[in-house]
Write a structure and sequence with these properties.
Helix 13 packs across helix 14, helix 17 runs antiparallel to helix 18 and helix 18 crosses helix 20. Among the domains are: 161 residues, Glutamyl-tRNA Synthetase, Domain 3 (Glutamyl-tRNA Synthetase, domain 3, Alpha-Beta Complex); 98 residues, Arc Repressor Mutant, subunit A. The N and C termini lie far apart (87 Å). The chain has 21 helices and 13 strands. 44% of the residues lie in helices and 10% in strands. Strand 5 and strand 6 form a beta hairpin. The protein binds glutamic acid. The site of glutamic acid has 8 residues, from helix 6.
């Protein structure tokens, strides 16, 4: 038997920014597809017009682009099963809903919103389903003629699935193993709305079938919907083609209590969205990892590790390595606690591993925005190389490298002034002579510096910190002789002279 080509889909509803859990769903879909030489489909599930938010689809596209994940089929690139936006597929769905009604697996419901509201008030925890549907206005109870008349008159109605009574729905989830649901607990979900649009439940099944999806990865929050989908696959006669399900574990709050929400991010001071999301209605800006200065490689890496590992201690993976190593067996069933400190660690590691040439454009932008003019690209590359291991997020490049482009505007005087002596002035004056002579490498410069200190009866440690503050302004930065070499002898001399004035003033 020939193997079916793997086809997976990410099927977001364009209702706002993308939570990091959403991007992890994208990633796992993508890794699985690429591992099996399959296709990754992006399908926009925009049938709920009331929840539609302008700009959200573009945000999703931009987000995938930032992450370096290119869908094989999408509303933008098209594909064999286009259109990939459900609102453009509206005429497709009714036929299937009607077929279900004809078979007795679904029914017309004419209850108005007011009637249902009244019911909700009357019956605690009301749900339209096995226990209540017989007392409501639907084609299960109304005489056939009345139903026909209501339909003929164009009375607003929806089509609902008829959940079987006293039954159990079983299925096998690739991550969670055997899962079962009691049908009496599940409501008769609306499949087709009064406006003729399908709901998510109908559209997702019809499209997964028509688009020949073989594996469906989605967040655990969709698990309660799975029995409805499974019944639909069965009722529509497609069970043999049903995708294999994989419900991904939740990403939890840092304390492990509940799902990580946008509000947790605001409360604890870290982003939860991939990129900044601006809600035009509320004027609220939800911060994103991208704008905070995360590299997309680091973002994907940390997301992969929220719920997956390759069975070894390896933590840093490139996208290609993840594709190679990915396996569903190694996705954990339990939720993964989000740890922002660990997320930053991934980013710092990725900044260290990324070459200066790749970081150049982003660093350049950051420095430019702070008014730093860069004239020499080769110099910028060298600076990036010496400071990158001190940067956790990209904006750190400003603090860590500004002094390579401009003299310190101020000095940490508290660290030097109280202990300043004439002997130190004398030392640095002599050191200027060394710098004015034939240039030597950083290593040799350090040796000469130390020898001079000894000669002057000073401890090298007593002049090392002042030297750093002279060049940098504060107690930070890479090896001070590397800084001096990169600044060049004449700039180093200028900075020493200027600082001595400040230290002795
Ligand atoms: N449209 C659903 C969402 O917004 C997709 C769930 C699924 O993948 O079935 O996440």
């Amino acid at each position: 038997m020939s193997e079916k080509k793997v086809r997976v889909r990410f099927a977001p509803s364009p209702t706002g920014g993308l939570h990091l859990g959403g991007v992890r769903t994208v990633l796992f879909n993508y890794l699985f597809a690429k591992k099996h030489k399959g296709n990754f489909v992006l399908r926009i599930e925009d049938t709920d017009q009331t929840r539609y938010v302008d700009g959200a689809e573009q945000y999703i596209l931009d987000c995938l682009k930032w992450c370096g994940i290119t869908p094989d089929e999408s509303p933008v690139v098209g594909g064999q099963y286009a259109p990939y936006r459900q609102s453009e597929r509206k005429p497709i769905y009714r036929e299937y809903a009607e077929k279900l009604v004809a078979q007795g697996h679904a029914y017309y419901a004419f209850d108005s919103a007011e009637e249902l509201d009244a019911k909700r008030k009357e019956v605690p925890n009301f749900q339209y389903g096995v226990a209540t549907r017989n007392g409501l206005r639907n084609s299960l109870n109304l005489p056939l003629q009345e139903t026909e008349k209501l339909l003929h008159d164009g009375t607003p109605h929806v089509i609902r699935i008829k959940m079987p009574e006293d039954d159990t729905i079983n299925f096998n989830d690739m991550i969670r193993g055997h899962v079962s649901f009691e049908t009496n607990q599940i409501d008769d979900k609306v499949l087709l709305k009064a406006d003729g649009m399908p709901t998510y439940h109908l559209a997702v099944v019809v499209d997964d079938y028509l688009m020949k999806i073989t594996h469906a990865f989605r967040g655990e929050e969709w698990l309660p919907s799975a029995p409805v989908h499974i019944l639909l696959w069965e009722y529509l006669g497609w069970k043999a083609d049903m995708p294999q399900w994989a419900h991904l574990p939740l990403i939890l709050k840092p304390d492990g209590h509940g799902k990580l929400s946008k509000r947790d991010g605001a409360r604890l001071g870290f982003p939860v969205y991939a990129m900044n999301w601006f809600d035009a209605k509320t004027g609220e800006l939800t911060p994103g990892f991208r704008e905070l200065g995360f590299l997309p490689e680091a973002f994907l890496n940390l997301l992969a590790m929220l719920g997956w590992n390759d069975g070894t201690d390896q933590e840093i993976f490139t996208l290609d390595e993840m594709i190679e190593k990915f396996s569903i067996d190694r996705i954990s069933k339990a939720g993964a606690k989000f740890d922002f400190e660990k997320a930053k660690w991934y980013n710092a590691e990725w900044i260290k591993r990324t070459d200066a040439e790749t970081l150049k454009v982003k660093v350049w932008e950051i420095l430019k925005a702070k008014g730093i003019v860069i004239k020499d690209e080769a110099y910028l590359l060298k600076v990036i190389d010496v400071v990158k291991e001190r940067c956790v997020v990209l904006p750190d490049f400003y603090q860590q490298s500004a002094y390579f482009f401009q003299q310190p505007a101020e000095y940490d005087l508290n660290a030097v002034k109280p202990k300043w002596t004439d002997a130190k002035t004398d030392f640095f004056t002599a050191f200027i002579s060394i710098l004015s002579a034939e240039p030597v490498d950083a290593h040799e410069l350090e040796a000469k510096f130390k020898a001079l200190a000894e000669e002057k009866g000073l401890k090298a440690g007593d002049v090392m910190l002042p030297f750093r503050i002279m060049l940098v302004g504060g107690k930070f930065g890479p090896h001070v002789f590397d800084i001096a070499k990169l600044l060049g002898e004449s700039e180093t001399i200028i900075r020493i002279e200027k600082a001595i004035e400040a230290f002795t003033a």
